[in-house]
Structure formats: structure tokens, C-alpha cells
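Late entry, evening session. Most of the bench is empty. Finally got around to the prediction I had been postponing all week. Sequence below, unchanged from the version circulated by S.P.
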Amino acid sequence: MSEQEETPGNRLRKELPEELPATPAEETTGETTGETADSAAEPALTGRQRLVQGLWPPRVTRAQLIVAVLLFGLGFGLAVQVASNSDSDSALRGARQEDLVRILDELDDRTQRLEDEKQGLEKQRDELENSSDQAEEARKQTVEKERQLGILAGTVAAQGPGIEMTIEDTKGTVEADMLLDAIQELRAAGAEAIQVNGVRVVAGTYLSDSDKSVSVDGNKITAPFRFKVIGNPQDLEPALNIPGGVVQTLEKEQATVVVERSDKIVVDALRAAKRPDYARSSSR
């Protein structure tokens, strides 16, 4: 058969290249492709199955554990409270009428006892407050009385309105009895505190003549004689200036008398407190 007579199949076979043996790479590629196909052949998971796989096995953190314990404790406490309330309600619900009346009477008695106790405590509080106030008032009165007695006894200093009287005796004619008359006249006019030349005048004060001078309770004083007197100036000054009174008597003896009113006279000469030898308080 000639070349012109070749069939179409033979011609096609000559044109195709010869087959080559498969390489290892191609074999591997074939295996991978087979595995992918096998994986693709497996069925896909549903949403529920994925949720189960995500929750199990559980992954618990420390914070979640603490929250769980707290929630458990809270729920247990609520359950106990509800159970106790239910028990009490059921007990009262199932009680007889006589028992309910008795319970109400006991509650009323308890309320009354508490009210009586409250009133008693309030009464004790009021008594304590009153006694405290009375004690404080008594203490204040005692302090005030002590101060007043101290002024009269000359053991404490005093100040207040009054007068200052200065007697100038250049001739040396003023004697102790003249000064004593002045002191008596001032006391009669309401003098509360008197001081003469730095000597405090008290109830037991005495005056005497001593070597052309005057002695007050043993203390020698010389002219000019200065009186500091606490009292009402409107009563003290007129008492000294009455006709035939202290001022006129001293002026007859050629002495000069000056009386001045003042809103503040300070009597600061003090005497030591003397304890009586025999007299005692009758309140002891």
C-alpha cells in the first residue's frame, strides 16, 4: 500500500507524540487530588454540631467560677428565705382562732412592755439632766457666793464704779478717829470695798494713832490719805459732803479733801484668809 493510500487513523497516530511514563510528581499530585476529593466527599457539619463542639469539653475560667459560686450562694439564700416565710405563713394559716388571738395578745403585751421601758428610760434621762442642771446651778451659786464673801473679807480683788477721795494733811492734824468716821460714813452709804493707802479695809479693821501717823491694822500710813471705794457714786459722794459730815470736819482741821467719781475703781489690796480658832460652820 502506498503512502497515498494510508488511512486517516494511521495518519493521526503518526502526528501524535509518543506517550511518556508518569513522573513521581505527577503521581503525588494524583494522590493529593484524590485526598481532596475524598475530603470534599465527606458531609459538612450542621450548626448544632458546631455548637456542641464549641461547648464541649467546657473551658472554665477563674472569673466564671467565682460568678457561678456567687450565683449559687444567692440562689440558696433566696430559697431558704422563701422556705422559712412559707413555713411561718403556713403555720399561721393553719392555726386556730384561739391561737391567733393569743399571739396577738402576746404581741400587744410585748409592745406595752417596750413602751413602758421607753418611758422609764426617758424619765431617767430627764432626771439626770435636771440633776446635772441643778448641780451646775448650785456650783455657780457657790462660786458666786464665794466671790462675794471674798470681796467682803478682802481675800479677792474687786473692781467697779465708785469714788476716789484724797485727803491732804500738811498740818498733821488728821487723826485716826477722823479717818474712821470717813470709813463708817462710806459703809453706811453702801460701800462694798474700801482701800486706804494700799491697806484693805474689812469688817475687823481698826485704826490708831502712832507717832504723828495713823496705823491701819498695824500698818502705818501717812498723808496724803487716798481712799479707793467701790459703790454707787451717787450715794457715796453726797454722804461725804453732807453738812457737818466728813468733808467739813476735815476742812475745819485745815485738811484739803478732793472727791472724784469714776466708772472703774480697782481695789487690789488683799488680806490673807484667817482661819478662826473656835468658830465652825454649823452646816457640818
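Two things to note before I forget:
The CA atoms of residues 42 and 94 lie 68 Å apart.
The two ends are 175 Å apart (CA to CA).
Will write this up properly tomorrow.
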